[in-house]
Every structure is written in structure tokens, then in C-alpha cells.
Amino acid sequence: MSGKIPYDDFTGSKFRTKGIRKLTQSDDFYGIAPLADILEEVLSKLFNRSGFDVSFWLIDTFSKNTRVQFTLKPTVGLIDVITSVDVFIDQYLIETLNAMNLLYFHNASECDYVKYLNKLTADECFSVGLIAETLKIIRTYTSLKYNFSDNLDKSIVSKAISFAALQQIYIILHEFAHVLLKCEIVKDSRFLFVKEQVLTLLKNNSPSVTDSEINNFISKNIKLFDECYCDSFAIETIFVVVNDLDREYTYCDVCEALFLALNHLHIIETVKDIVLGREIDLSLQLVIRQLFLESYMPTQGFRRLHPDLFLGDSFRACEKSSDKDIIIQTDKVIESITDPFIDKMVAVSAYYSNINIVELLHSIMSEPRATNIMDTDGLAVTCSELLKQLI
């Protein structure tokens, strides 16, 4: 176990493909199978009709991207309507999420992150055509060792992959919500509610910041509202999906998995920015999305975990009634599901604050480059095969 993170049959390797492959119901790629029906139902409600087709495709790019494309059918006198949706998932995303979960749950050191960030950087260099850089970083990667891999806990390995499955579903739902925004069919009261929530979070967590400074931030980060809206859709929908998965997840599991996912995605995007030379500071956006998650999760968890209080008359009573017993019961339930999540969130934030990801990535990219590489096509094939062996 010298320096490698072991994977079992649930890591994604058995689904690996060359090029592109359509996933079928029998594949059941980490709980994705139930998603098709759920997303088709969402579209049916939005467009008030049936007959939608949602398909999932596995692609081989090392980009770790999840893209959602839709087909529009022109209609006479009306806006174009969606007829089908195709979700393209880079096959290495699930492995990346799993590895990052393992690093976190095993309290991996900065030295472990140096090794793993070399892998992520090599993946990204290869995906944008920096072949010589890819080969150089692969050589550095193979010379390093994971310190934590000699003391792996099997229960943590199982937890890491189960969280990765949940995180991938969350990412798919988030990207699907972007499609709804593009179609401009969800700029409704809920979008305005999310926007107000984000503005409140900005003001409450920056009391000394003036309104003009907040407006300036918003003008430069206008897409933050879209990101939080898509997070809200994913949060609400994932509690429906969880009921159809083989593994039982607690409310706290869902919260922790999603909070970790935001950190993982932040690292992946930071790698992309540094490889491409884009000096974009996404840290504040990460904090706001984390705070939004913290504020939005309890209500959604409450609705799913305690439907007896949130259905029909009970739901209205919970919100409007002056019945003290109902109010006390509601407060106790929300407190019981919120406090453990807050503890998890604080632990995640504290852990990542001790690892300077940006500084480590700059160090990796500043190493001397190989020059005058011949036979780039042949080298690209070699790099591709080498990357597939890295964990």
C-alpha cells in the first residue's frame, strides 16, 4: 500500500470507457438511475406536459466536468420547449470526489495534498493540451508517497465512496438547474427568495461593509445568485433522491457530503484557474455558498425527516399557528438536526484552513518545464495511459 489509495469495485473504474458511452438503467452508476425519472418529472411539472427524455453519458476527458445539454423544439407562437436533456459526466469525477473524501476523513497532511494536487494538476494540464507539463508532473507525482495510506480504515473507505456518490448526484442536480435558468422558466419568487437570502448573508457576515461595497461585489459576482439558486434546487431534490438509494443516509450525512462537495469543487476549479493562468479568487463565493447551504439545509431536512409536521394543515400550523406545543416541537427538531451539521461544517472549514491549496498549486506549476518535446501525439497517448493509472 505504498503511496496508493486503494479502490474497490465501487470507485468508478468498472465504468471506465473510451470516448463516450450512454449509461443504461442496468448500470445504476452510483444512484444516477433514479435521477432520470425525477428530472423528467420536474420538467413535466414546469412545462405542464409529459414525454421528456433524460439521458446520462459517461465521457473520457480528465476534465471532471458535468455538462447538461438540452434539445429545443420550436413551437408556433410560443417559446421553444425542451424535448430532451443529455447529462455528460466525466468518468474521473467520482474517483476525484472519492479521493478527496478519503484525504479528509483520514485527516491527511499537507504532504498528502502535495501528491494529490500533482495528480489533479496533471489531469488538467492534459485536458488543455499541455502535454510536456503533464509528463513532468506525472514524474513528480510518482516520486511522492501518501502518508495516510498505510493506515486506511475500511469503514472510512466505504464512507468516502458513499459520500462521493451523493456528491456526484448533487453536482448533476446543480447543473440541471442551470438549464432551467437558461430557459428562463424559473425566475420566479423562489429565485427572488434565494437572492434576498444571499444579500442577507453578505450583510450579516460583513457588518462593516457598506451598501456600495456590497453592490460592487454583486456587480462583479452576479452569477453567485444563479449558483445559490442551483444549490437550492439540488438541496431540495437530493432529499427525494436519497430515498431511492441503496445506502441509508442520515440527514447529517447529506449535509456533510454536500458541504465537502463545495470544498472539493472549489479545489478543482482553483486547479483549472491556476493551470490556465487565471488569477481568480473564488474564496468569497465559496464562503457565501457554504453559508447559504448552512441556512437552507435545515428547512429541507425538516420537511423530509418530519413530514407529519410539514404536510397539509400541519405545515400551515407549523408556520402560522400560535399553538405553543407545535412551535416548541418544531424548534426542538430543527435544533436537533442543525447543531450536528454546524459541528461538521466547522470541522471541515478548520481542516481546509490549515492547507494552503493555492500556494501548493503555484509551487507545482512553477517547476521547470520540459522543452522541445517531439512526437506530441505519441506522448499524448502515453500521458493518457499514465494518468489512468494514477490514484
Low-confidence stretches: 1-12, 310-321
Rg on CA atoms, Å = 22 Å
The helix/strand series, from N terminus to C terminus, equals EHEEEHHHHHHHHHHHHHH
Shape: globular
- Count the E strands: 4
Which class of secondary structure composition applies to the elements?
alpha+beta
Indicate the percent of residues in helices: 55-70%
Distance between the termini: 12 Å
The share of residues in extended strands comes to 5-15%
Any overview of this molecule?
- This protein is an alpha+beta fold.
- It has a domain at 92-108 and 146-355.
- The protein is built from 15 helices and 4 strands.
- A 4-stranded mixed sheet has the order 1-2-4-3.
- Strand 3 (66-73) and strand 4 (81-90) form a beta hairpin.
- Helix 5 (154-182) packs across helix 8, helix 5 crosses helix 9 (251-275) and helix 6 crosses helix 10 (283-305).
- The longest helix is centred in the last third of the chain and has 30 residues, at 324-353.
- The radius of gyration is 22 Å and the shape is globular.
